[in-house]
């Protein structure tokens, strides 16, 4: 029904003569017709004969009556009985004539208004239809600007994705509200019976996939569910990652994050699909690097301009991984599992907020806000602390894509905004293959402050071997190959039962993690950096106090690390350092005694990927109670040799399946990074720029300098550790006959 204002507006433009000339059968001024109808009915009832057809009477209102009625209608379309009687007296019309005139006038007004609205809606509909046809034609004839072929029709639909993400976010909020209700009501209210979740391991065809889907390469609940061989990743005592349950206090625009995520996903897909000239393939290792000029022509930045003084690194790598895609998606979408998958690359990872948990087990449209610390195993490369969003999208039954992109949740005026690095759209496209493998295309694109990196490591980072796609892929393949071997029933382990292997590997995992944290100065451990005058600038010395951690000796722990250039190949250096028979050539603490391997558990192909228990040879017929736990591995992007002295009685408990979390460890060891030469003069000392036979050796020690946590650290302790670093490097060079 139209409002009074609308009626008045239309009435002002209406021709009053139109009503004045209408016949009674049109309903205007029809009092005589109304009486005639009653008369016909009465005649039928009285005579019993069909009524005679009477000629309809016409009654025309004169212009004065029409003018008065129209004027009153403009002021009051619904006159009351008293007003109708007054009009009847003044115009010489019966009251019911006045009543019917107003009824018919309102009906006509409504019809006119509806007709007017229909005309406007039809015009708008025709306009939208024409625009839609033009858009369809444009999409059908779209041509890729880069390659000149028709564009891929399977583009991302932004609007449906936004709706699905918002729907999932609302479901998450409902679940949180239900959890609070459960907490305060003291009883369990669950919707699981109404919406049963499919089994996580549904559709998996191997033990490895079941393991990864259960654990995501990370923790299990109180050990209630274990791997088929009893091996657990990431028990609370093994990987003390940040608790992701806290809420981020600073407000942020979630809808804006959704827009950024969709744009980042679109860029990642294109960068994963496009070839030359966007990507330039290397000659030697085949690593693909980004053509920056072509990138600027193809893509526009949606996270702002590159910070002043920052350098760009961008690489792409593709490889086959022995795992189904969905299991890999599960691992990457869990912060703790992701960090444990890449322990030497990620020193800390935490999920700040889950904007969307995605669709079921597929994680389709899952979107979360994260923070992580990335590291290279060298004290000469600062930790990269990045805030970013991670978005997962399933593009088909067998294809997923996961993209990260940096964001800034702090005030723009904050000096820590993108302190030393920011990630442009980076991530991976995962495609399931028929042979139970997944094809993974990894794109890593970042901008960083090169001035904070020591000149010795700048070529490594610029080439992509530091944080690039090749390193991510190499670590991924090594970790999954290791897991597949651990699930094998014929796993090699001398005289160690399955439970003992589990405990031994957990202990080694904690040892390697603590070593990496000491090298990179992660914020997870409360390290205090020391500046001592007689310690070189290439040496990082840090200290912290252990008061109540049973996994370390109580007291003051001193950490010292440095990186040096070694004019020898990575494999030659690795073979020397992992060989227990040659250990006495460089290990000052071995007192020149040869070492032998008591037990060994393989973690991958080749002899160098294993966890071992070493024992020093007996001196004067007496055995020692001190053993060495050692883990070693090597891949295309580096190698690791980490070890720690352990008490013989403690290691026996571990090998019998006992709890390894209470074994006190202080790890030391070596990280080997590939040597990368630049086109110009070599920045490494004592090496010809025309040769590539060289690598970077990182040496790190963690030593208990005082068993009293409240004691003061002395300069003599720092000098002792610094001397240990220097002597160890010199002995290694002497053993290799290099300078």
Automatic annotation (TrEMBL):
InterPro entries: HD, HD-Zip_IV, HD-Zip_IV_C, Homeobox_CS, Homeodomain-like_sf, START_lipid-bd_dom. Residues 54-113 bind DNA. Residues 52-112 form the Homeobox domain. This is Homeobox domain-containing protein. It is found in: Nucleus. GO terms for cellular component: nucleus. Keywords: Coiled coil, DNA-binding, Homeobox, Nucleus, Transcription, Transcription regulation. Residues 250-485 form the START domain. Residues 50-62 have a biased composition (Basic residues). Residues 22-62 are annotated as: Disordered. Residues 106-145 form a coiled coil. It comes from Gossypium mustelinum. PROSITE patterns: HOMEOBOX_1 (PS00027), HOMEOBOX_2 (PS50071), START (PS50848). It comes from the Eukaryota. Belongs to the HD-ZIP homeobox family. Class IV subfamily. GO terms for molecular function: DNA binding; DNA-binding transcription factor activity, RNA polymerase II-specific; lipid binding.
């Amino acid at each position: 029904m139209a409002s009074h204002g609308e009626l008045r507006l239309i009435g002002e433009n209406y021709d009053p003569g139109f009503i004045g000339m209408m016949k009674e059968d049109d309903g205007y001024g029809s009092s005589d017709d109304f009486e005639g109808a009653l008369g016909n009915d009465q005649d039928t009832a009285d005579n019993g004969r069909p009524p005679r057809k009477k000629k309809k009477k016409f009654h025309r209102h004169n212009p004065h009556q029409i003018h008065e009625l129209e004027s009153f209608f403009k002021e009051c379309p619904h006159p009351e009985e008293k007003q109708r009687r007054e009009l009847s007296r003044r115009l010489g019309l019966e009251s019911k004539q006045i009543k019917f005139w107003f009824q018919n006038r309102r009906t006509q007004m409504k019809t006119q208004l509806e007709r007017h609205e229909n005309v406007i809606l039809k015009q708008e509909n025709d306009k939208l239809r024409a625009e839609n046809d033009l858009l369809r034609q444009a999409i059908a004839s779209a041509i890729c600007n880069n390659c000149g072929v028709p564009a891929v029709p399977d583009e991302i639909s932004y609007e449906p994705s936004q709706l699905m993400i918002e729907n999932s976010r609302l479901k998450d909020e409902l679940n949180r509200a239900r959890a609070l209700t459960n907490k305060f009501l003291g009883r369990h209210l669950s919707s699981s019976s109404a919406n049963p979740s499919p089994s996580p391991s549904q559709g998996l065809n191997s033990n490895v996939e079941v393991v990864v889907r259960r654990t995501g390469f990370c923790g299990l609940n109180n050990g209630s569910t274990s791997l088929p061989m009893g091996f657990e990743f990431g028990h609370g005592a093994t990987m003390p990652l940040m608790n992701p349950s806290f809420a981020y206090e600073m407000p942020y625009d979630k809808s804006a994050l959704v827009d950024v995520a969709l744009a980042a996903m679109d860029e990642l897909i294109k960068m994963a699909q496009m070839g030359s000239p966007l990507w330039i393939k290397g000659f030697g290792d085949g690593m693909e690097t980004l053509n920056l000029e072509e990138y600027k022509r193809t893509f526009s930045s949606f996270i702002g301009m590159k910070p002043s003084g920052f350098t760009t690194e961008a690489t792409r790598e593709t490889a086959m991984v022995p795992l189904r895609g969905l299991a890999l998606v599960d691992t990457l979408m869990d912060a703790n599992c992701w960090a444990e998958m890449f322990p030497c690359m990620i020193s800390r990872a935490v999920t700040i907020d889950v904007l969307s948990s995605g669709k079921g087990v597929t994680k389709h449209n899952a979107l979360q806000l994260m923070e992580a610390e990335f590291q290279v195993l060298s004290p000469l490369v600062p930790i990269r602390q990045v805030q970013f969003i991670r978005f997962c999208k399933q593009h088909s039954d067998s294809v997923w894509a996961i993209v990260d992109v940096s964001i800034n949740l702090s005030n723009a005026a904050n000096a820590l905004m993108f302190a030393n690095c920011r990630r442009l759209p980076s991530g991976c496209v995962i495609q399931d293959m028929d042979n139970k493998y997944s094809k993974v295309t990894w794109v890593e694109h970042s901008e960083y402050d090169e001035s904070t990196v020591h000149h010795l490591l700048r070529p490594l980072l610029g080439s992509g071997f530091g944080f690039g796609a090749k390193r991510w892929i190499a670590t991924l393949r090594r970790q999954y190959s290791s897991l597949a071997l651990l699930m094998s029933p014929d796993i090699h382990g001398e005289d160690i039962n399955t439970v003992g292997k589990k405990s031994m590997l957990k202990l080694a995992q904690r040892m390697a993690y603590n070593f990496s944290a000491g090298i990179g100065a992660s914020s997870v451990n409360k390290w205090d950096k020391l500046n001592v005058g007689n310690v070189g600038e290439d040496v990082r010395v840090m200290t912290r106090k252990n008061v109540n951690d049973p996994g370390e000796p109580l007291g003051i722990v001193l950490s010292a690390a440095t990186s040096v250039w070694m004019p020898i190949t990575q494999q030659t250096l690795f073979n020397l350092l992992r060989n227990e028979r040659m250990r006495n050539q460089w290990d000052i603490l071995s007192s020149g005694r040869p070492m032998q391997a008591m037990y060994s558990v393989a973690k991958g192909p080749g002899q160098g990927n294993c966890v071992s228990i070493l024992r020093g040879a007996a001196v004067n017929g007496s055995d020692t109670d001190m053993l060495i736990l050692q883990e070693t591995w090597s891949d295309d992007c580096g190698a690791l040799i980490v070890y720690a002295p352990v008490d013989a009685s403690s290691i026996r408990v571990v090998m019998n399946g006992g709890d390894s979390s209470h074994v006190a460890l202080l790890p030391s060891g070596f990280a080997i990074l590939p040597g990368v030469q630049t086109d110009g003069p070599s920045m490494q000392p004592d090496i010809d720029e025309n040769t590539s036979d060289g690598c970077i050796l990182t040496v790190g020690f963690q030593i208990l300098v005082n068993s009293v946590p409240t004691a003061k650290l002395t300069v003599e302790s720092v000098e002792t550790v610094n001397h240990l670093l220097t002597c160890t490097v010199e002995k290694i060079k002497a053993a290799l006959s290099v300078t």
